[in-house]
Amino acid sequence: MKDAIIIGYGPAGISAAIYLKRQGVEPLVIGKDLGALEGYDDKVENFYGLVEPIYGKDLIRNGIKQAQNLGIEVITDAVISLKMQGDIFEVITTQEHYETKTVLLATGKTRRTMSRQGFSKYRGKGISMCATCDGFFYRRKKVGIIGCGPYMLHELEYLKKMTKDIIVFTDGHVLHGEVDVPVVHDKILKFCGTEKLTHVETSTGKVELDGMFVALGVPSSVEFASQLGVIIEKNNIVVNDHYMTNIPGLFAAGDVIGGKLQIAKAVYDGMNAADAIYNYIHKK
Amino acid sequence: MMMIFMSLKINVKRWYFLAVLFIIGMLTYEVENMVHTFTTNNFDAEVLQSNVPVLVEFWATWCGPCQRVAPILEDLAKDVLDAAKIGKLDVDEEYEVADELGIMSIPTLIVFKNGKVHQSTIGVQSKETLKKLLDL
Predict the structure, then answer these.
(1) ipTM associated with this complex
(2) If I label B54, which of A55, A106, A126, A208 is the partner at 20 to 30 A Cα–Cα?
(3) Is residue B19 among the annotated active site residues?
(4) A133 chain-B contacts, CB cut-off 8 A
């Protein structure tokens, strides 16, 4: 059992890890990519102490190295699910299962919605982002699941308990892993229906469906937080003054909680969240 | 309650009468501030015919996120007093209403005004957001 798992190794996550470590808590940091700063082509020049402007991804790599030099465990893996057993969190990645007393969500924001015709219209009317939340409504019905990796396979396993009639849609991507249900490799063009979703149109035809689950790529922290029942507003995770969500032990910092999308703010969040996590662990 | 009324018959002292009034008042206060349970049978009377806006949470016992909505609704009910009615409906037990409204994702929160769907939202919301949904 870990004391704290930090999801995301950007400025907020690494800063939290450093402050936790200094307070004697050994955090595990799990990151999957360099986040918003990876695709940021301009150099960062407005952050304290930068004698020369630096590429965002270099800054992030430096942060990771800095944490590792301090003896903090940092791994690269993607979290596909976050669950709770009593007041213990279970963090499920593509490789491992971890148990922890606290979790800090510091993944940044890379919101993947599907910008296809009909997606917003049928969201909650046939289109679902969460198999464990909505799978029950599709018992013995015909459903599709969009995705191509471990996250999709995880959600697919759950859906199989509800119905046997499932089609995987890779939406033009390469399928990683094996499935024992039919697979449609075409790109989805359009979600169609009346009051509810009735079918999708792909580049080669029409597939009738009662429901469609979206499990593309890896879930954002907003997605797995909402599956646990965290309050989300305007795509931001809502936290109190102590960076804690409405679920005790679950914290969030950085871009995911909104506010200024700046490194300085993320670092500040990370530092404060570390204090809050320390106090939470030691109050128990 | 029966005991109190029976004692009332025997004992007509004024203070006792006041005490009973107080208890009844407290009970009414509690009732007005609680989270209601809506069913297929009472949905029309309690929700559609209501004089005040009604917020209904569509939920189920197996739904993880729904468990997080319960304390928010209790808190909300204390805040809105009699300006609105707050309640929940189990989509498994009362599937007729849920099916009729086409609920396919939970938690779904719907505000009914004058018997019609006024606004709705999916997922766990803060108390403040729910107040806005109720136009309060």
Answers:
(1) 0.76
(2) A126
(3) no
(4) 63-65, 105-106
